[in-house]
Amino acid sequence: MIRPGKQATLLPKQPPLSNLELTSREPPAIFAVNDRRATTGLAPGSRAERLASSRVWICLSVAILFGLATSPACSATRSQTKSPAPRPELGTKAKPKGIIHVVQPGQTLFRISQAYQVKVASLMEANRLKPSTPLKVGQRLFIPGAEAAKKVEASRSLTVEERQALEQSLREEVTAPPPPTEPPRPRVKTDAELLWPIVGPLNSPFGPRRGKFHAGIDIGSPHYQEVVAAADGEVIYADATKGGLGKAVVLQHGREFRTVYAHLSIIIARDGDTVRQGQAIGGVGETGRASGPHLHFEVRKNGVPLNPEEFLPATIDELVRDLQRKR
């Protein structure tokens, strides 16, 4: 009601604040809880001021509950809050260390493993290679753990003279014990260089036998049990001998050592193959001169036979006997 004699004064109509104005990304100031009047620029008690205050509490609640995570209501303070550092995704693996080796003519997986001192199995796993897969010139191989490129010797087949000498050694029987080439090794070994090529009883040890010298060990087994490589190597012979050893496989391990697997019923490995430790190379048999199925296994260093048991892990029976002796 307007009293008589008083002139009505009309106030200019104020347009309502829009949501866009209230949620602007760059407000004039950050809302403060303790001094709303100084920072908001809004009339105390107004609807806009109450809305602004409620948004401040929403922002604080979200920040406390969700680790400073922002929401649309907190857009006014988003520019003032530093984004947290991105977290690494769960399950991600660090990039493995190593180098890339480009295969050159004549190089085999075994020769590459020897040069870089990496197991053949590790190279096969890192490059998803199958057993006995031939490498191609120019093929790129990842060498895990390597820091610099190494010189890799090219593989070569045995010369005619070398093969004849090897075949002759497989035919002949040793009549006298070989001269010692190195100090005797501990008899009971738990950290051996070689694996047992098959599982079975030791039927005949290394040493004198029936007036001659047995240059290896005989391991009893049923027919066709899988014979595996005792160590990483390269196949230099896979054929039937003309002597008492029957079908045999010979592996080259580095420059000095070779292993012989004889009396096989079947040969899986082929000349020139790279084999990893534990890979099948044949099956147990009784070819040649044999009284029953078994594996004749030899270790040779520069052509001289050594006692294979010194390079193989101790069996359970040996560990028990060694424990009893110590008591």
Structural features, described:
With 327 residues, the protein is α+β, with helices and mostly antiparallel strands. It folds into three domains: 60 residues, no CATH class; 47 residues, LysM domain (Membrane-bound Lytic Murein Transglycosylase D, Chain A), CATH 3.10.350.10; 161 residues, Glucose Permease (Domain IIA), CATH 2.70.70. Helix content is 22%, strand content 21%. It has eight helices and 14 strands. Strands 3, 6, 7, 8, 9, 10, 11, 12, 13 and 14 form a ten-stranded antiparallel β-sheet that branches. Strands 1-2 form a two-stranded antiparallel sheet. Strand 13 and strand 14 form a beta hairpin.
Number of domain modules: 3
Structural class: alpha+beta
Count of DSSP strands: 14
From the structure provided, what is the oligomeric state, counting identical versus distinct chains? single chain
CATH architecture of the largest domain: Distorted Sandwich
Outline the low-pLDDT stretches: 19-40, 73-82
Cα-atom radius of gyration: 40 Å
Distance between the termini: 118 Å
Secondary structure tally, helices: 8
Mean pLDDT: 79
Question: What is the CATH topology assignment of the largest domain?
Answer: Glucose Permease (Domain IIA)
> What's the CATH class label of the largest domain?
Mainly Beta
* CATH homologous superfamily placement of the largest domain: Glucose Permease (Domain IIA)
The proportion of residues in beta strands is 15-25%
Order of helices and strands: HHHHEHHEHEEEEEEEEEEEEH
